[in-house]
Design goal:
9-stranded antiparallel beta sheet, globular, mainly beta
């Protein structure tokens, strides 16, 4: 599947990526789930990581990000961090076609945490746009 590009000004990013940033979006929840396998699908989804956001303070108005068939690396259990905000991230396309997203968050005490998620597919739900979905391959 060929990647759709967001704008001619940002051809290196896929259509679903938040090129103007999620800085100051409040993280409302961070949950991991195992999914029932659809054995008829050519690309079954096994796991998902869902991050719900309050985008009031961010430039991009994204309210939910769902990563499919992901692997998560984190300094701490992200679901235990209360009242936190998205500070920044770096997106990398891996040689095998998947993506890696490294993100930094900050809590009310000013403590900073980071997590890295590698994934095959993503759904991004915006407050004022249509859902954007894409495969990493």
């Amino acid at each position: 599947m060929k990647m759709k590009m967001k704008t001619p000004a940002f051809p290196e990013y896929p259509a679903w990526y938040w090129v103007f940033g999620l800085h100051d979006a409040e993280i409302l929840s961070f949950s991991e789930m195992e999914l029932p396998t659809d054995w008829k699908s050519k690309a079954p989804r096994y796991t998902c990581l869902e991050i719900r956001l309050n985008p009031a303070g961010a430039r991009e108005k994204i309210k939910r990000i769902v990563f499919y068939n992901y692997s998560l690396k984190s300094e701490i259990d992200m679901s235990t961090v209360k009242k936190s905000w998205w500070m920044g991230d770096t997106l990398t396309r891996l040689p095998d076609g998947r993506f890696s997203l490294e993100a930094e968050i900050v809590d009310t005490k000013g403590d900073r945490y980071s997590f890295s998620v590698t994934f095959e597919e993503i759904d991004v739900v915006c407050v004022v746009c249509l859902t954007q979905s894409d495969k990493a391959t």
